[in-house]
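hey m, so remember when u said the C-alpha cells were messed up on ur end? i reran from scratch. heres the input so u can diff it against urs
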Amino acid sequence: MKIQFKKEDWFDKEPVNWKRLIIVFIVFVPFAYAFEQVLHALPVELYRIKDLAIEDLDFTDIHYQYEKPPTYSSRKEVLLINSGSLERGATFRPKLTRLIEKLAAAQADKIGIDHYFVDIPQGGQADADSLEEAIIKHKVVFGVDGQYPTIFTEVPKNQQGYINLPRKDRESVRTYFNYYKLPLAGSENDKVTVHSFAWAMLPKMAERPADSIFWIKYSSKAGGFYNLRDPKVIGDDRHDFPALEARDILDSVISDAALAEYVSAHPLVLIGHLGKDNMYNVEDLTDKHRVPVDFDLVNRLPVMPGVVVHANAIQTLADNSKLFDVSGVLHLVVVGFLTFWFLFGLLQIKRLKPIWLELLVDVTFLILSILGVIRLSVALMDVGVHFHPGLLLLCIALLIEFKVFAFHFYDHMDKKKHAAIPDQTPQPPETETEPESETEQNSATNTNIP
C-alpha cells in the first residue's frame, strides 16, 4: 500500500469546532489532576524505584550542558581558601585566626568561614576567644547551622550567615536561602530572622527580598574550582572559581604581595573545605553535594564542595542573575495554556487508517512535542526563567490517549442530540392529481398492443 503524503490527507480542512475543543479541555483538567494524585499514591515499592532512578531528574539541567564556560560569568568575585590543607587538632583554630589576619591585611572586602563552631576547641577557651575576637574585628561572616548553636555568642547578627541548604536528601542543590527564621533558644514560637551565608557575604547588603528562597544560576562546572597557582590550568577551567591552599598562605609560600594581588582580583574570600591535605584529593567526600551542572542527569554523585555551592550563590547575587521560578498559580496557568494549544494541534490531524498509521502519527507528535517542551524550558533558562516541564509533559502524554476517547464520545453525544430533535424543515405541499378517465386508461392500454 502506497501512502500519499498530501497535506489535505493529513490535516483537517474543516473550521475548528471551538465548542468541542473547549468542552474536551474542561473535561480533561480534572482527569489529569486525578491521574497525578494517583501517581502520588503509588505503593512504597514503586517509590523506592523512583528514588533510585529519577528522584533528582530536572530537564532544565540540560541548560548547563549547552552553555559554554566563557558565558558563565565575566569575572569571579569569590576567592576560595582550602582549609582542608590545615592539620586538624589543637592548632586548627589558632591557624584560622592567623589566616583571617593575613586576608584582612590583604584588603579583602569580605571574609567568610564555611565551618561550624559548636564546641570548645582542644586548645582551650583562649583559642576560641582569639578566633572570636578576629571574627568580630574584621567583620568576618561565619556559618550558622540551624541544628547546632554556635559558641560565638558575641558576634553581631549581621556577621552570621545561615549555611544550610533548602533541599531534600539525594537532590541536587538548585535553590538557596535569602534568609531563614531560626527559633530562639528556650522558645518554641519566637524566631529570629538570619540572612543566608551568601547574602551576608555581599559587600553592600541590599534590602532583604520578600522571597526566602532563590534559584542559583551556576557559574562554574561540577567541580567548580581550580588552583590559582597552577600554571597548567588554562582555557575553560579558568572560568571556575580560583582557589588557594591555606597552608601555602600561612607558610609564606604565597607572599603577602601575591596574596594582595589575588585578593584585589577576587575581593570576596571564602574559607572552607575543598579537600583534605590538598584541594584535588578525589578520595575526600567531606561536604560534597550533587549539583545540576553535573552532566549526569540521573543518579549523580556528590562532586561539588559546599563552599563552592556558596560561591555560586554569592556570584548569582553579585551578578543579579537569579532565576525567576515559574511556580504556584502562574505555573498552572502556563501549563493549562500550553496544554490547550497542544490539544488544538491534535485536533487538526485527521483520523487515519489503518490504525497503526494513526498510532504512528500520534507517537511521532508526542515525541516532537516532548522534545519541544524540553527545548522550551532550556531556552527559558537562557533568559533567566526556570520553568518546570514535568506537569506539562504528563498532560501531553495523557492527551494522546484521552483525545481519541473524548472526541469520539463528544461526536457520539452530538449525533444523538441531533437525532432526538424532530426535523423542523418545512416540506413543499403535495400536488393533487385528478384520476384518469376510463377512455384515457383504455387508450394507454391500446398503445401497448402490437
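this time it looks ok to me. The first strand starts at residue 78 and ends at 82. if urs says something different then somethings off w ur setup not the seq
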